[in-house]
Amino acid sequence: MGVVRVGQTDIRYELRRSAAVSERRITVTPGHVEVVALTTDDAAEIDAFLQSKRQWLFNALRDIEAQTAMRAVVPRFMTGSKMPYRGRMARLTVRRHDGPHVEVSYRSGFIVDLPSWVRQRDHDTIVATELKLWLKQRVRRDVSEIAELYCKRFALKPRTIRIADMKTGWGSCGPSGSILINWALVLAPKNVLEYVVAHELAHLTVRTHGSEFWAHLAMMMPDYERRKGWLDVHQASLDVSFLDRSA
C-alpha cells in the first residue's frame, strides 16, 4: 500500500503492476484508489507519475465524495421506497400473496410479492436478496444481448463473457479473451452498460489504451465519448452495497 500527499491529505493507494497495459493509470472508486503501473517501472517513475496526477487525483476524490454523499440510500425495502435502476430512481412496491415463492417483476417500478409465511423481521433481508438476484439476472441478459450484437457485427470471438462483483473497474478483458463486466452497471443507463461491453470487446482487437484503441472504439461506437462521460461523472453512484442486508 503506497501513500501520496494531495493538499493536506495523505491518500493511500493500491499499486498493481501489469504486463497487459502500455500506459499507467489511476482508478478512483469510493474508499479505494488503484494505481496500475508498467512492470518495468521503478519507484521513481511511479512517484513522478503520481506527482503529475496530483491535481487530477484531488478533483477525482472531491467528486467521488460529493457523489457518495448524494447517492441513494434505501433504509427500508417497503412500498414507496425508491432505488436506483438504469440511471433513474425506481419506485418499490411490496405486496403479500398466498403463493409459495417470492416473485419480483418490473412494471414502471419494482414489484415484490412476498409469501404470507415471510416473517416481518425478515422482510428487508428477503426483499433485498431477491432484488439483487433479479438485477443480476437482468444485467446478465443485457450483457449477453449486447455482446451478441457486437460480436456478430464486428466478427469478434471472446472466449467467455461473464458478469462479476468487481472491487475496482467496470470491465476487463484478459489475455485469453475472457471478458468480465461489473454487474453494478445495472444501475447505469443501458447505453452506458453497452459502452463498457463494447469497450472490453474492442480490446480483443487492440489491447492497449492508446490512440489506436480509441479510434477503433469510435468506429464501433461513434458516440462512445458521451456514454463514457456519463460514467466518469456518475461512477460513485453505482454502488450496490445497499442490497447487502444481514438477517
TrEMBL record:
CDD domains: M48_yhfN_like
TM stretches of this protein: none
Domain YgjP-like metallopeptidase: 25-233
InterPro entries reported for this sequence: UTP_pyrophosphatase-like, YgjP-like_metallopeptidase
Domain of life, source organism: Bacteria
Signal peptide start-end: none
Pfam families: YgjP-like (PF01863)
The protein's name in its UniProt record: YgjP-like metallopeptidase domain-containing protein
